[in-house]
Amino acid sequence: MHRPGALVRPHSISFATYDRMQEVLSPARLEIIKSLVGKGALAIHEVAQRAGREVEAVRDDITRLVNAGIIERDAECVRFDYDGIELS
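The structure corresponding to this sequence follows.
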């Protein structure tokens, strides 16, 4: 049960096609997600360092993942509020 007014997160994310899933969850973006799993909120430069990539490239990929509803971003940090990714 959740408290009134609380945000209820979906437990899954769907893609219209397999091709769309591959486009959004590219290998580079999956590395970003892996770097966030279980870490809480991280600054974008820290995500880039963990992924071994340039900050600007990671920033672009983070924008794509945020727009797809996979990760969340605030003014300072990004986070992935799930335990991992499961394909079914």
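The chain has four helices and two strands.
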